[in-house]
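Subject: Glucose dehydrogenase structure
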Amino acid sequence: MRKINLLAATTLCGVMTLASAQAQVASHTERLPGPGNTSQQEPQSSDEAARFAAPSPNAPQASGVNAANLPDAEEIDPATIPAMAAQHSADPAHDDWPAYGRDDNASRYSPLDQLTPSNVGQLQRAFVYHTGSKPAPGQQNKWAAETTPIKVGDSLYMCSAMNDMMRIDATNGHEIWRYKAGVKFHSIPYTAACKAVTYYTSSTVPEGQPCHNRIMEGTLDERLIQVDAETGKACEGFGFHGQVNLMQGMGESVPGFVSMTTPPPVINGVAVVNQEVLDGQRRWAPSGVIRGYDAETGKFAWAWDVNNPDNHHQPAAGEHYSRGTPNSWAAMTGDNALGLVYVPTGNSASDYYSAMRSDKENAVSSAVVAIDVKTGSPRWVFQTVHKDVWDYDIGSQATLFDYHAADGSTIPALLMPTKRGQTFLLDRRTGKPLPEFPVEERPAPSPGVVPGDPRSPTQPWSVAFPRLGFPDLKESDMWGMSPIDQLFCRIKYRRAAYVGEFTPPHITKPWIEYPGYNGGSDWGSMAYDAKNGIVIANWNNTPMYDQLVTRKQANKLGLMPIDDPNFKPSAGGAEGNGAMAETPYGIVVTPFWDQYTGMMCNKPPYGMIEAIDIKTHKVLWQSPLGTARANGPWGLPTYLPLNIGTPNNGGPVITAGGLVFVAAATDNQIRAIDVKTGKVVWSDVLPGGGQATPMTYEVNGKQYLAIMAGGHHFMMTPVSDDLVVYALPGSTH
């Protein structure tokens, strides 16, 4: 059954806005580049060229980049890393949620069945825990906690948006311990976020001794930290008093340029770290290198440096990892049996211009890269976008599962969502598409119009898995709160370049990017019920309005990279306008909206959720996700319960009780959905935006539901420090 309820969307006509604004954009009155306000590339003066020159290989890091002034990590032979002890996430206890995606497969599926469609309406708040992390009075709001707690035994373990780690009584929210990470405000990159911590059981420290069980996190200021799970005290045998400096070998940088927001997976004793490198800054940004460390000692094991693929060692004194390479900011997944970590990559620095990228970079950008955790060498690469200039980096975590093929064989498989709404199902041993889910190379608009930067003539399409998206935009899709607004959007549509998906970047006029860089699927990923073969996916339908601008125009707009003394986050930071220094162009990115009302130009819905049967390749149900209650023109809430579908960030979970739990939408609600019908059977208004993935657990026979209602500056939802936990009233067993 395939259901799309658009009646509410069309009835609302005129009251829905893109509450998330989707980008850092100029004010409504600022004159942005566009038809009648363009120029061809101007030659740079020698002063301008020098200003945006590449940094010296020996340039020192700015003060504060090496947080806590940590010494360099010692390097070891990966072969000496001891065999890993059994981990809770490999075969989770029935009542636990010991990893970000619950298990090593990142399934986001719980076998708990106490909550069902028939009783979930009785859910009540059991407790609210406050992390203590939110903007101080007068402080710029860069908060978006995005946290999913983990649960082992009778405790929740989690991190705040600023990387404090906490252990909490899972029945009442009482704080048992807190580790203060000491992250400074200036180290926040685009967003203060920490998606989860990692629970790790040592193979060298005996049970009952400190740091037998450990909690580990990567931080916004690029540290890898381990503490004892029982006491919260630093593990002295790990790194330098429990910390490792992840800025080692990264070369010149400033606080906030490089950060880690996802939990480091441990595969065969190797803790693998990636990092977010702030988008849109400069061509020679810090490296996107992927590194492995001994999870017992914190000693360096290997590096995968894209432009130096055969050198797996740390850089020598005065050297650094190759700069500007594709970075990976999404959560990674590992396979202990195969000894692989699956790394979702982005594109090289300067997202919207590819002429200066190396062949090695072009081969691994916007791809899934399977890296051998004992050597640091890729075994295979599957690319989801060729020569990406649309910021289609992969933000989702891969989900692992066993696929039962038509011939009766079982294939270890991987499910990879993308911002394009294309979902690729691969043999995780080889990276090749599953036989029943082929991938075609289809013609794409080429060669493009930017001098010296041709586009790929084809792009990959997953042809057997339902696409998370709608057909290409048409002028008749434009709408607004009045005929004048609709006319305004039609004019914007006509003025822009648009030939469907992969419309090439333009310099002399804007181009429409659809899907936009917020998805399709983003970091919330998908949930998978292996028993029934059901995938649950929520996704976005929000096009963008982009234009390359010359360096002179970029300077006029105040677009400077983060390491420039004149950098202003309000002019351009990450998602949105960017300097793209050391290239001929800057970039202006805005939602495709009526900037006077703040309403999107394409008709709703802007956010969707659906169930897909992986066996039949069919959509079981589909509906808009999010109501208009907290959204409206000029950013004013309408308080209307109409389910029109809003932009969303965060993912779903599935339970054996037949429920999907999801927040994510900009109406600040968490929902329970009947997995069979797609009907919302319970909801609650949260104290802040629910831009996180929920989780569920059980203690003493009672099932709980937890969601971090921290809000999200990017999605323009209210910020709070509240972890909200629900349960049925009274005792159950």
